[in-house]
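To whoever is on call:

I kicked off a structure prediction for a single chain this morning and the downstream step that reads the tokens threw a length-mismatch warning. I double-checked the sequence; it's 337 residues and nothing unusual in it as far as I can see. Pasting both halves so you can look.
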Amino acid sequence: MNHTFPDETPNSTTGSRLMRAAVVTGPGEIAIKQVPIPEPGEGQVRVRVLGCGVCASNLGPWAGPEWMQFPTKPGDLGHEGWGVVDAVGPGVTNVEEGDPVATLFYNSYAEYDVGPAESVLKLPASLADTPFPGEPLACAMNIFRRSGIEAGQHVAIIGAGFLGALLTRLASLAGAHVIAISRRPYSLEIAHAMGAEHTVQLNNNYEVFQKVSDITGGRMCERVIEATGKQGPLDLAGDLTAEYSRLIIAGYHQDGPRTVNMQQWNWRGLDVINAHERDPAIYMRGLREAIEAVEKGRLDITALLTNTYPLEDLAAALNQTRDRPDGFVKAMVMASR
């Protein structure tokens, strides 16, 4: 549910300059408020946000778990933004006003966001008018690097959403035999278009195991990427591994503890990679690689950005991300009018 609130009194540092920003006021409820435009400090950049991707990691806070505190800060949860540099603070030299940029800021469900200059990358002119949710693209590049995928390997990717589709493309370009696995027929269509050699619908784990065994001649997969963040697919991921293979956990498992079949993992001698980064420098390396990959045509994200909403309809975008109707891959909210 969305609400629009009247203008709030601006503070003395910003005069009368206000912006619209989304505030999550409770489980499943959003208010669009008028708040002061933030000012960049030393080493900071202010970006006029053009748009922000909607991440599945938002769904936990959106549901209102016990640990969540409401209301959120203005723009909070939005971390897949892109836009145009609007102002720079003292000491900033890597970008200037007017530059199109991708950001790794965290309050981008708003018309403006501010963050450190080292969390901004200038986009080339060819991408200046292109929606560019940089954070998940950077994640895909970093996950792919840690997966160690090589030509000729069988690679199972469980979950064919935005991230899974990107990884399917990267793995297929590397010469791997990609097996895309998803519950949703539409996601499998997307995976096929992104280069998957085989697509398998996830009805139950045993059926998938049998199909993958047939595809691989019983050898199973040298690389398995779990990209759902759910217990059942994590169990399946272990089942699909070959001995001395690598299991890569790309899913965002933040809704409770998980169990693993340690007997299986131990017996097969698996390398298990938790492919999540927290070092800002590694994030930025992934973002640089993603910008280059999109600019050179190795990654085409156009077909993956399926649903667009104005900022006022952020609640609908989050609900669609949760419900994933047919034809849905990735939602974006467009902040600037």
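Update from on-call: the warning came from a stale cache, not from the record. Cleared it. Sanity check on the structure: The chain is about 30% helix and 30% strand.
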